[in-house]
Amino acid sequence: MHIGRIGIWSPELRDPGQAEEAAAELDRQGWGALWIPGLGGGDILGDAERLLRATDDAVVATGVFSIWRHPADEMAAGHARLRKTYGHRLLFGLGVSDAEAARAAGGTYRPLAAMNAYLDRFDQAPEPVPPGERIVAAMGPKLTELAARRSAGTHPFLVTPGFTATARSLLGTGPLLAPYQAVVVDDDAGRARTTARRFLATFIAMDHYAQSLLRQGFTEADLADGGSDRLIDAVVAWGDVATIGERVRAHHDVGADHVALHVITDRPGPPRAEWRALAPLARGRCSRRSDA
Question: pTM for the whole thing?
Answer without folding.
Answer: 0.95
